[in-house]
Amino acid sequence: MIDALSIATTTFGVCTSLGLGVSQLSSGLGFVKNIGCDVGANCVAAGGTWSLDGFGKENCLGGVTYDTCSVSWQASAQAKTDSYYTLIGVITILATVSVISGLDRGIKTLALAAITCGFIVMIFVMYADNTWYLLNVMVQTTGYYLQYVIQVGFDCEAFQQQSFEWQSGGGKLWMAHPISERMATAGVAMTMSSSNCGSMVNPCKQGLIMAAGTALLGTATPLSATATALLKSFKMSPVSLGHLKTTGDALVAAGVNLRGIPCGSGWNTTHYDAWSAWALRGSVDTALPAAVTGATFPRCPETITKDVMTWGQCEKFQASCPIQQTYYGDTNKMFMDWWTIFYWAWWITWAPFVGFFVALISRGRTIREVIVGGFICPTLYAIMWFSVFGGLAIKMQRTAEMALEVEPDVMNGGITCSEHYSGGVPITPKAKHLARAGYYMLTCMPKDNQIYHIMEPYANATGFLQFFLWLGLVIYFLTSSDSGSMTDDIISASGLSAERVPWWQKVFWCWTEGLVAIALVNTGGALKALQALSIVIGLPYTILLCMMVPSLYRLVKKEVGDEDIATSYKFNTQLGDIFELFSPKCGSPCSPGKHVTSILLGLVFPFLAVFKVFKHLKPEAPTQAMLIGLTAQCFHLAWLIFMIVEWANGGRNAHNMAWLWFTFFLCVVTFARVEMRYKHKVWGSVFDDIFAAMFLWPIALAQLQMMAETDGQDKPLYWKDADELIATMQSVADDAGEAPVKPSAAEV
């Protein structure tokens, strides 16, 4: 079962990565194809005039047909999808060749090629750019990482998640009625959302710039400079201010009786409605003047809601924010779900693949070497990589913002792109000249293009960098696909070494991953469904990983020869015997029928198991054993009764009372297991006992009952089964002439 789950998680993890990353590879291929292509020169060669001084996307004047340096596979949605198919197919073919070539020849060679491409680009830009700045970013990033890794690692956004309790129906996740319904029942009226977003800027979609706007009209005066400075402080650029003055002067010249300068979009274009009648001093339902119907109004100033009155009035805001953001500045309550939870689960789905593969290539190494090579070195490399490219991205973004005079909402990560960019294309003269120099507001560019745009300030080296960057990304995907396929190969072959796995099986798993990825790209919404599936699969694997932590700790104790665990025992029946139909290979002192009977009794009548356990623990105190057993039975019965009441009558808080008594019952089971371990020198921890009682209490009670009834008969030494398995594997390896390299205790 664990092998099947591991194969599924590995396949889904790799396919999710291919599905999410293939669009970036497709976009990057367009940059590589256009190395050396000059749109301006093509326009001039075709007889047109190339000019960056106009507004709009088109820069070639004269109506000529010329090479726009665009690529066919980016021309439409279907063309993009077709390019995704091709890229996934090519990657799958190369991954198949790599897996068949073996670990040392194929996968190792690709891994070295990938990291070489990465270093080529990273080291070049460190020399080509401000090296001192990038080194400072590395040092500063390392400090931030060390400072926040613990804090952010434990951040669950608890107060932001409280927002679920305030929405209608949301509180039912955890309680009988959400808080919003309770307030309504109590007669307390609450506005759950409004245009007031607290400290976050909420752009105005349709408004009226009043005193400051009218001060700019006509001939410039000293008041005009004050008004200009005020509106600039509200994130209005010189382009918007020029548009505002031009539009306002035209409306005044047309005889429109203004209260202020209209801004934003969505204005009625045929007749006065209630808002425009007030703003433009007209009569409701009468026709608008021609100057108004044909006007394009400037963008409204950007302020927090409470500061709107300093520049005018706003009729329509862009966002409606929850009350928690208004009062406390809380972030989006869904961030934890679509960011933290998704990436946590996605990374967990890679755990069996990465763990297995790292173990495969680490054979014969010490634990210290594995930690340094598999944890510390990748962390340091990630800090270097993201410091360099993240630092360059921030530098480019800040340069473009200052050059275009676009002030961002730093505290909330907001930026307005529509004034200078449309669909990722510069549309103002200043933005066009900036792009010609290789600089963009990266947040306004398509996400798949951003890393390639970072390479553009390096003039004649741009193509060189973009090529190696794209090639490195392709090879990184290749190494993920081939190593994931190899992991599936070995697991599905019951642990055979990579050399012994049939070649056709390697081909099967490579193409299974490739075809699944193609199917995901082809089916709308399937990739999001797979992301959701990653979260679902990540949950049980999280539990398995938590179990692996103490398992590794115990294994290390065995390797160094700690006497406490080497001389300890296990229970004579195991919690996992159910998976072997209660006839485990290691043997059991009780028959399968006894196992089943004990589990059923523990499920419905726990008194018997608890009584026998404490009678076994303290034979001289049968009355005490009787009282503890009756107490456990009462707790268990109370749990059932209150759950029935909740189900039958909808009794409010009845289920809460039920789980209260059930918690007390689990405490009794945990205490019994702890005491039994101490009596029979069974190695373990209180956390093991809590886990067993919480999730497997009928089986745990049956285990304790049979241990008591047999007085620990045939309880094995803690490492007996593992030692026998190691001996068997050693024998098989010796017969095959492949004796495994086993590190000594001193090396570990």
SS content category:
mainly alpha
Shape assignment: globular
Q: What is the end-to-end distance?
A: 31 Å
Sheet with most strands: 3 strands, antiparallel
Helix content: 55-70%
Uncertain segments are 739-748
Strand order of the largest sheet: 5-4-6
What is the overall pLDDT average?
84
In total, the number of domains comes to: 5
Radius of gyration, taken over Cα atoms and rounded to an integer in Å: 34 Å
- Tally of individual helices: 29
How many strand units? 9
- Strand proportion: under 5%
Structure summary:
This protein has 748 residues and is mainly alpha-helical. The chain is 62% helix and 4% strand. The protein has five domains: 2-34 and 71-152 and 335-522, no CATH class; 38-66, no CATH class; 158-190, no CATH class; 205-310, no CATH class; 569-716, no CATH class.
Can you offer a commentary on this structure?
- There is one protein chain.
- The chain is 62% helix and 4% strand.
- It has 748 residues and is mostly helical.
- It has five domains: 2-34 and 71-152 and 335-522, no CATH class; 38-66, no CATH class; 158-190, no CATH class; 205-310, no CATH class; 569-716, no CATH class.
- The strands form four sheets. A three-stranded antiparallel sheet has the order 5-4-6. Strands 1-2 form a two-stranded antiparallel ribbon.
- 30% of the residues are buried.
